[in-house]
Amino acid sequence: MFFKFILCLSLGIFAWAKEIIPTPSTPLTPSKRYSINLMTENDGYINPYIDEYYTAGNQIGFSTKEFDFSKNKAMKWSSYLGFFNKSPRVTRFGISLAQDMYTPSLKNRKLVHLHDNHPYGGYLRVNLNVYNRHKTFMELFTLSLGTTGQDSLAAQTQRLIHKWGHDPQFYGWNTQLKNEFIFELHYQLLKKVPLLKTRFFSMELMPGFNVELGNARDYFQLGSLFRAGYNLDADYGVNKVNTAFDGGMPYSDKFSIYFFVGAFGRFQPLNIFIQGNSPETRGIANLEYFVYASEIGAAMMWRSLRVAFTITDISKTFQSQPKHHQIGTLELNFAF
Questions:
Q1: Is residue 118 a contact partner of residue 101, using CB atoms and an 8 Å limit?
Q2: Dihedral angle at the C-alpha atoms of 263, 268, 271, 273, nearest 10 degrees?
Q3: What domains appear along the chain, each with residue ranges and CATH number?
Q4: pLDDT 10s digits, 23-50
Q5: How many CA atoms lie within 13 A of 184 on its CB side?
Q6: How far apart are CA 125 and CA 250, in angstroms?
Q7: 11 has a pLDDT exceeding 90
């Protein structure tokens, strides 16, 4: 696994360092559309007979139009929301409500005392986002404020969904992580590296990295996406609730369709959803510090709508986990 992690890092560094193919200089045109974003992640979208570990994530969000603050003295302070102040950019703000759910393996759903398995946990949060789109790269700053434990409402959500779907119930939610206020800061940098650009077909690499620090998760991630299709200039890729990179909202109304594959390596010294946050939940599982993931998916957009589906394969996140875990992500964007 360590070799694969290093391979992911090497591919990301190579793609980032690659010289950009010269293209005509075009000014940034701010998107005038606001957006509603809906996302759902679930391992059941890939295999309906599994329900375990990071089992589900859901998010609803709102994003503003893009603003050009370069000549707005009243918004001069916004120049500090980024590390590339001399590069022309447009800025978009967003807010979202997200919830994650974690459980042990399905076969252990009736166990109250867990050992060498994933602890029960939920994470409910509000994400405050700032997107800075430059000519060839995008920055994302996120402040997440939320809670774990019973206040995350993860147990109630899963019970309701499983009741509606006539799925097996999990009986150990009273042993989940304790209530804890969560504060997380996140930064992401994502770059476009064109490989081929024609009228009807284009290819590009999108290397990037992100880092997150807080009292729930600390990690550094590096990886790269490969995209191929028609009109790749419409966005920076799709979004995810809990893995890989976030591409933000589309900034073009023109029709676009593409497929993508990606690989990512992550170093995570802290993850309370595996390590626990109380005497009762600590020691149930031992954290894997190096995690890697791969993904494949497709997206299509036109005017006010974008739809995307992603399949993500995640390596073992705790040491006694028997095998990889797969999740599916469905995303819908509505612009107005």
A1: no
A2: 30
A3: 2-335 (2.40.128.140)
A4: 445 678 999 999 999 999 999 999 988 8
A5: 27
A6: 24
A7: no
